[in-house]
């Protein structure tokens, strides 16, 4: 993939790069050499006038060659000085002492009389800024690919996390909002970078090492290092053990040269997720500066460069193992809560109840937040994406979820740009798929929007869409969900695990399947069976009455066409066959909403709006017509699911959720384990 | 290359995409079919209860198949109705009349008794939104690749120009600032897009065609179309012949369906160049909308999509043929002007003089602007990039250059962010090069900045750097130029054409080459020859005096090390050998500037700061020491250049430019022809 590099990348000197330097035939020079480079001098340029021959001799640690090549018979036998003769110098190992190596160029006149000597006193240094470019969790030495980033199993390039958790549970702040290291544990959320040096005890006078970043990158990272002298006295919770090397205001900073064989650790902290204006790539440079004199800028004579990519935020599909389930407790949802408790605890997962002091009556746990995670080779933790919906649950993600190794991210939108489609019941993710040979091993994000052909409809707000697209690793699909009053994709679709085919099925609400079931009931003599029987909050209706209502049929035909439209997109974008899709018998009705537009709501509890916990499904109890004492809708649902080895538990959400236009899924949320697949192994 | 597509791309239905529709076994349906798609109906879904068999018959224009395939013996022999049976329908040509084709599905019971008929009255349409996706200047019909963009000679995708010229010479505005078509000639700067339709005289009731774009893309284009009825009455200069179909505020608009075999032209106008936040790609969609009923949104049942890329701004290196030369006339530059006139007119090019009422004494024609061009297969014109420098020449680019087929672009920076490095003597471009196998057939942009290792230095302002990088086709190289008082790359480097090797030489200022020449003079007995001899505005100095001044030698050693640093970068980034580089004998001196930093200026007129007009070079007259009546610096320069077949003309710029810290190049500008190479043929 192509990537924009910043202008200053041209300053980078890579391994084996040549550095031109000036030979001085009049006095001896001290020259600092860095392992992996080649010093290059034009022999003619500084030769005394009338020089005709030259010879070179050097101490054992120094190697040289002449370009264009000449026949060198012995070190001291003079060579004809060509106008283009160039001397190339390398050194085989780092110096133990300053100026411990030497090279002399001797110039001769026509009669091989010595005209002058150019003497170099050489010091060799080894300098390597190192990162975990091979992504194994260990900072290896001088990876040849550390200066670039490549996706895929044969790729390379280090990974950076946005330090979006909070080391503190109380009085907490995002760690990115704090520009010091509050606790040692925070280092685990950063990427280690090691400066490895080898050479004499100190750098020659005036030379120094500087770490530097571009102005653009400075907005996205901080770099810390332990204070060398106080490190041993470091106490957890005390920040003074670390210094900020680079921040958004400090783009370049000197770093110590420790002498001998030394390693200095740095900790790189990511501050922002990839977004529309940030591709996630960060370049950090380390330069060796040569002094010139007072009033002149020091010259970088060697630059080592490393590249990081900020880890994307990754969503977790229904097929991943649940870790914990979240629901709200309200004054009126005791029955629902009891049903959920049974389901979750029987399935062996943890249930978290958000109590009323926090939810203030907002029961839509699905809508306020989306669970995901971020991952680097050395660390992974969950990150909650807080919706700009901001109902009364708005404080929950920050106040209750953010904590040590539990990250938080949000996108701010103007109040006027936020609609019901910004609730995260409208943000789902598919299981892994392959589409026309293209693999999506982390699945694809699914959101709902209005048809782009109209400017009237509601949409998911642009800042959230931009964020989702910029993560790149779960390329989003936009469905048409604005036909629903609430407008969430989870009102007509979900995914369940399956033992065969692609490892999952797409479940779609289907009025056609509903009508087919009801017509079958009627044909089998159950036309008088009643939906909603025994409920005192909903007038019962017979199968016959439903089938006779032509207007209702027309409304459902429209709903079916909307779902079919999405079905076509999903088949195309997820590479699905009809056999990968199961139609669930669900009817809708149209209501004129506040815009005077007709939009759909589920006619009876919307069974597709379920919670998926491994092989256990928690499904809104549909209150369908009973045949031989058993709800025909539940029976059909069970029959469709049991072939996949899934167990259906029907949960009564009628009064406390369904009548408020949501169901089980809208009222719950599941944090799941991350993928085994590492996002950096994607072929992009 | 990877590209971010916008969320709504998922709505695109491509050729051969299937559309699910509902068969109605109870009443006949009217169905609109679009060529290239497949209609798909689940036969079981709407079958009457107890259906066991079915049969299909249709009129000749209709083709169908059953999936999974069955043994069809005759049209009327009933087939067993499988639970998964799907009917796939295509039509071979567009309809002449509404509902002129028909397909019937008949359902049978167990005893092959007819249960019901689902009757489809079909109308076929051909719809194609077309662009010049094969880049030959002609809008071909339904290019299969029109919906994506690919670089390279085997690439595809249409090209859009930023309409940054001004059709009017007087009272002018950028055409992009005017949201109507002022003159018919303006259409040439836009890209034609054709809607081709074939079908009955009108669309069935309620259907309509809509063109639509995303909110992001709407900032970057407008779409116009001729008003159908007034088109024949169209008068040049009258805007009313065209309507705006899409603008930044109108993201979707209905377009007429003309009936029969019809073509409607649209004109797409680019509004912004690629930049940090805009990759240059634009998607335009055309959808066919199906009515549902009042209060329900129409459903897009077919969408055709085209993609454009906005043409980048391209710079022209010295090796391209000059068209016209620009210089300023000031109260004190008569001699310079005379020299330039002779050079330019003798070389056969046009000379444009910017007079004092416009330049107000600002003579730095190089610094205020950079000439470039933009190109599409159907149109190419020059575009001036106006520098944020904004000296007294600031009005010249807009007032004097902008005009019909002469475009203008600028980037606004805060006053405090603009430095001398923002003058475009600091913005150059190399001839075409190949670097480690990577081709740059349009060369590479070269700018000068400070070392990134310091935060003190001056830089080219970020908005201009971002713009240059975003053009992509001449990937920039950043050199170190902050060591100079003025800080422009043209103070130490230029390119001249050459008949051999890579087709050019890089010329570099070289104090070492200067000292070598002066030492040679001294050795040959010319130590008393004087620089600046006969000038009354500069004290003469002998060769001996220069060679004896050790401080001056040290300053020049430093300058040489700065240039060598850049030489290493240029060799690496342009793939040059030493033989591609010529060192010119030029000395510098250091001065303490307003920052109390020592920076360099040319000691005598800086010969590398030349104007290159084909094989004629206009070089600052150096006023070097004379040997046998001839300036030794001029002689050396001529000798170095004549091997390349280049002629040197020395122009006296001493008083009016050199002493003001500029030279011939700084005081002139050259508009050149564009490359023969088309930028879209780059392999990116």
From TrEMBL, chains A, B:
Record EC number: 3.5.3.15
The enzyme's first-digit EC class, named in words, is hydrolase
Q: Which InterPro entries match?
A: Cupredoxin (IPR008972), PAD (IPR004303), PAD_C (IPR013530), PAD_central_sf (IPR036556), PAD_N (IPR013732), PAD_N_sf (IPR038685), Prot_Arg_deaminase_cen_dom (IPR013733)
Q: Which residues form the Protein-arginine deiminase (PAD) N-terminal domain?
A: 17-123
> What are the protein's UniProt keywords?
Calcium, Cytoplasm, Hydrolase
State if Cytoplasm is listed as a keyword: yes
The active site is formed by: 367, 488, 490, 666
Q: Does the keyword Ion transport apply?
A: no
The protein's predominant localisation is cytoplasm
Any single Gene Ontology cellular-component annotation: cytoplasm
Q: What catalytic activity is recorded?
A: L-arginyl-[protein] + H2O = L-citrullyl-[protein] + NH4(+)
Q: Which Pfam families match?
A: PAD (PF03068), PAD_M (PF08527), PAD_N (PF08526)
Q: Where is the Protein-arginine deiminase (PAD) central domain?
A: 126-290
Could you say which cofactors this protein requires? Ca(2+)
Q: Where in the cell is it found?
A: Cytoplasm
Q: Locate the Protein-arginine deiminase C-terminal domain: which residues? A: 301-681
Which terms in the Gene Ontology molecular function aspect does this entry carry? calcium ion binding; protein-arginine deiminase activity
According to its UniProt entry, the function of this protein is described as: Catalyzes the deimination of arginine residues of proteins.
Which family is this sequence assigned to? Belongs to the protein arginine deiminase family.
Kindly give the PANTHER family that the UniProt entry links to this protein. PEPTIDYLARGININE DEIMINASE, PROTEIN-ARGININE DEIMINASE
Q: What is this protein called?
A: Protein-arginine deiminase
Biological source species: Hippocampus comes (Tiger tail seahorse)
Q: From which lineage does this chain's organism come?
A: Eukaryota, Metazoa, Chordata, Craniata, Vertebrata
